[in-house]
Amino acid sequence: MSHYENDHDDALAQRLRGLPGERVPPAAVWQRIAAELEQGPRAEPTVAAPAISVNAVPVRRRAHRHWPRYAAAAVVVALVGVASMLLLPQQPAASVAVEESSLQHQANTITYQYRQAMATIPQDEVAAELQPALRELDESAGSIRSAIAQSPDADFLLGQLQRTYALRLELTRKGVNPTGLST
Asked: Which residues, including other chains, have CB under 8 Å from residue 177's CB and lie 6 or more apart?
């Protein structure tokens, strides 16, 4: 704090200390309140009447009288909501695609192309000793896709996904063609 702020705070504190500690209403106000309490409830309020007329029924009784209407309205709203969820057709998957980022779209395209390429390779002919490495590559690809979903602006993940799929394809082809030549 600067010296100037301390001076300002001191002046404010001094002004606050100078205010009266308690304000007592004039005696006439207390006399009027006591007289009104002795009279009981008034038929005519001294304040301007509200624009909406209020029945002479006490507030508790009025609220008690309206709760069945509110309950019935709540039941109707709930039934309409449930009926609309059950009767209306489900949203197509295209609405989800609108929300995906361009990186997620590219990842989906790469995955689709990868799956098409994998469909051309007979998986049952892959050597058994390569299966653990292939499973690890599949898990890595799944982790990368999860990371893309969580961080749709991390462009480097797309390159990692491409390399993982390329390595998986190459290893699968080598497992089918044991000569080691990639096609």
From this structure: 183
